[in-house]
Design goal:
single chain
């Protein structure tokens, strides 16, 4: 099976955020940007097998900008989606002050993915 990306663009504070998501057999790849897709800060989130009360193991693999924010995205996404999540986050310097708005949009998209997956599992 060839991975396919589903892309969603959201306007927030006069800023267009693009979130491309690809579901793999054992996880999810998320590319988040405010322009063309580029490599940025990359983090991985791996849920622990002990349920929701256990922390998710997250690690920043590459990049120094927005490390805490990208780790938080990977952590929440891994918990909600129940699998490994790799996040690539690129935000241009001119939009650095809008990072909290971007995080809010990303959280909404992750929750939407979670609800769509739950719906698909209930239909099976």
């Amino acid at each position: 099976m060839t991975p396919e990306f589903v892309e969603e663009s959201v306007e927030v504070d006069d800023l267009r955020i693009s979130i491309a998501v690809s579901r793999l057999a054992n996880g999810t790849l998320m590319l988040i940007t405010d322009g063309e897709h580029r490599f940025g800060t990359i983090a991985i989130g791996v849920p622990t097998p002990f349920g929701e009360l256990s922390p998710t193991a997250t690690s920043c693999m590459v990049g120094t900008r927005y490390q805490a924010e990208v780790r938080a995205i990977a952590d929440v996404a891994a918990q909600k989606l129940g699998g490994i999540v790799v996040v690539n986050f690129f935000l241009s310097q001119k939009n650095a002050s809008k990072v909290s708005s971007v995080l809010s949009v990303v959280r909404q998209v992750v929750l939407k993915l979670d609800s769509e997956e739950t719906l698909a599992m209930n239909l099976e």
